[in-house]
Design brief:
The longest helix is centred in the C-terminal third of the chain and has 22 residues. With 343 residues, this protein is of the alpha+beta class. 36% of the residues lie in helices and 23% in strands. α1 packs across α3 and α8 packs antiparallel against α9. It has a 5-stranded mixed β-sheet, covered by helices on one side. The protein has 2 domains: 185 residues, Aminopeptidase, CATH 3.40.630; 116 residues, Alpha-Beta Plaits. It has 10 helices and 13 strands.
Length: 343
């Protein structure tokens, strides 16, 4: 039986109606709306010859046994950010449901096929993304920090997990789910403008960016906005502003898809009558090549020192997060490209 994309679109629209409002999707993980979406998804898979289970991190798995225990994983997440897009995240899970339907209708597959709905990929409620997938991957190394996380209402993360049957201390036991995994595939809506600009409907992703996030703190001197001559000012915001513009030049020099973002600046004292004394700037650096990512940060660091000297400021840098780039398996990329050509 052929796949029915129109059925997938209809189901995505049903999910939007069930778990969204006029502002967008509201399936924030560890909430009642998210739980309703989970139940909706489970109902879609009823009646198929699948084994269903929830692992120790709250990830939900559906397994179609094949002739081989080696498994192809189809994955995604049904949780969303507040006011999220109707396709972001859930497209991969709901499309996976349709793929499972077709494979199950054809009988026992050559290999085992598993659909996984990762728990809390977005991290919207507690600020920690990739909860379920990092537990399964065995890379959740910050459990002590996770215990201290609270949402905006002061609810601790462990309490919210407990309401959904998850114990933080056991989350890493989810790693056993990846035993026998041979490949992982995920369909995702493009989160940028590249394919649209190229007028291409589909593309194969080559890997995941390496990411570095840094906090840059500029320190100058507060001074009266009216009585302090421009040449005498030690304006911390000037350093942050120069760096924000320099990021564009660094991206051009590095090339290869380099992206650098100054995502926020908080100034003190933050009043209209005072020169800025401190500016705390958040930077996000991304590249698929580890050496080029390292070069990007070195150029940022050098620029910080240069602008601090020019503006007579003090500057401090602090790395707040880092992940290495990961290149995807070339054979899987080739298969994806072959499939794209077929459709």
């Amino acid at each position: 039986m052929p796949l029915e994309p129109s059925r997938t679109v209809a189901e995505l629209l049903d999910l939007r109606e069930l778990t969204g409002d006029e502002n967008g999707a509201q399936r924030v993980a560890w909430t009642a709306t998210w739980a309703a979406a989970q139940a909706w998804l489970a109902a879609k898979l009823e009646g198929m010859p699948l084994e269903a289970e929830i692992d120790e991190a709250g990830n939900r798995w559906w397994t179609l046994r094949g002739d081989s225990e080696r498994a192809v994983l189809l994955g995604g997440h049904i949780d969303s950010v507040p006011n999220g897009g109707w396709l972001d995240g859930c497209l991969n899970v709901v499309a996976g449901v349709e793929v499972l339907r077709r494979i199950a209708e054809e009988g026992t597959p050559a290999v085992t096929v598993r659909l996984v709905n990762w728990a809390d990929e977005e991290g919207a409620r507690f600020g920690r993304s990739l909860f379920g997938s990092s537990a399964a991957a065995g890379s959740m190394a910050d459990q002590d920090e996770l215990r201290e996380l609270t949402d905006r209402d002061g609810v601790p993360l462990p309490d919210a997990l407990g309401e959904h049957g998850v114990e933080l201390d056991r989350a890493l036991e989810a790693h056993s789910q990846l035993e026998g995994a041979a490949a992982y595939l995920e369909l995702h809506i493009e989160q940028g403008p590249v394919l649209e600009a190229l007028e291409l409907p589909l593309g194969a992703v080559l890997g995941t960016f390496g990411v570095e996030r840094h906090r840059i703190t500029w320190r100058g001197q507060a001074a009266h906005a009216g009585s302090t001559p421009m040449a005498e000012r030690r304006d911390a915001l000037a350093g942050a502003a120069k760096l924000a513009l320099e990021l564009r030049e660094i991206a051009k020099r590095v090339g290869g898809g380099a992206v650098l973002t100054s995502g926020g600046v908080v100034t003190q004292p933050g009043i209209v009558t005072s020169v800025v004394e401190t500016a705390e700037q958040l930077l996000d650096l991304r590249h698929l090549d580890a050496d080029k990512l390292a070069s990007m940060w070195e150029q940022v660091r050098e620029a910080c020192e240069r602008f601090a000297t020019e503006e007579r400021l003090e500057v401090e840098t602090e790395q707040i997060w880092q992940i290495d780039p990961i290149l995807f398996d070339p054979h899987l990329i080739d298969l994806c490209e072959e499939s794209i050509r077929e459709v």
